Amino acid sequence: MKKLWIWLPLALFLAFIGLFASGLFQPDDRIIHSRLVGQPLPAFTLPAGASDRPALVSADLATGRPRLLNIFASWCVPCAAEAPQLMALKQAGVEIDAIAIRDARPDVDAFLKRYGNPYARIGLDARSGVQIALGSSGVPETFVIDGKGRIAYQHIGDIRADDVPMILDRLRDAQ
Amino acid sequence: MRLFPALLLALVAVPLAAQTALPPAPWADRQIPDERQERKAKALMETIRCLTCQSQSIADSGASMAGDMRSQIRERIMAGEQPEAIRSWLISRYGDWVSYEPTAAPILWPLWAAPLLLLGLGLMLLRGRIKRRKRP
């Protein structure tokens, strides 16, 4: 019995080495995923973010058909890079709504005039309140919302051209 | 020749346009008039991680999103919400990660138990020694 106890410190030491090594070799993940994926969208009401698009209410996103909710801002450079992919998704028949973060309507108008307007509705979230309620931590981000208004998937960062088929798959899965 | 200063101004103005043009949220950098409430809000802000600059608390960060979060926290405290309720609301959005204050999640139980266990072990060892010394 006593002999077994002698090995305990060494066993503990090795266990800690293993723990630290696994932590060291795990890639650093700085992406913050929303905990709301799989849950219903929080309720919100936002004023119109652009002069030629209606405002956005959370109920607008539970229409029986899956759709995209894009979080963007006119001052965000990757959002401009993402614009062609959103246009392509719209061309493929996807309905896209948007929330403009910390933005002003004239700036959003100018952004849409320059990069195209794939959105059906745009809400203006001037104080990031809805963004925080969604568990989103930056721009751009895109949520796939199923027909019942649940968040099915969160895409962090801009949608690249090779992400488009995956987004279409996610929308089909959310049906 | 008048074009030159205008061009220079445009060059300087471009980086400015890269950030949000909006002024900070109303309560981002303004204290709550009620001192007790402000202290509560400040204590909470110091333990909430900034999502933009991830190694800073929102109290220290100059990121616009951190300002929005500070403003939201102050507004909620003024509305009578408890700091811990706000913390758990944030955790339900961003995970335990957003809070610098360790929670009582099961994965942290060994962390809380370790000091007690070690103290108990030390006391047992000490008792054994004292007993052995008294005997002869």
Question: How does this model look, in words?
Answer:
Chain A is built from five helices and seven strands. Chain A is an alpha/beta fold and 175 residues long. In chain A, the strands form two sheets. Chain A has a five-stranded mixed β-sheet with strand order 5-4-3-6-7. In chain A, strand 4 (96-101), helix 3 and strand 5 (122-125) form a beta-alpha-beta unit. Chain A starts with a helix and ends with a helix. Chain B is mostly helical and 136 residues long. The longest helix of chain B has 26 residues, at 109-134. Chain B starts with a helix and ends with a helix. At the A-B interface, helix 4 of A face helix 3 and helix 4 of B.
Brief account:
The complex is a heterodimer of chains A (175) and B (136). By secondary structure, chain A is an alpha/beta fold.
Strand content of chain A: 15-25%
What share of the residues of chain B does DSSP label as strand, in percent?
under 5%
Q: Which blocks of ≥5 consecutive residues of chain A have pLDDT under 50? A: none
Which structural class fits the helix and strand makeup of chain B?
mainly alpha
Q: Average the pLDDT over all residues of chain B and give the rounded result.
A: 86
Radius of gyration of chain B, rounded? 25 Å
Overall body shape of chain B? elongated
Question: What profile does the largest beta sheet of chain A have?
Answer: 5 strands, mixed
Notable features of this structure?
heterodimer, A: 175 residues, alpha/beta, 5-stranded mixed β-sheet, two-stranded antiparallel ribbon, 5 helices, 7 strands, elongated, B: 136 residues, mainly alpha, 58% helix
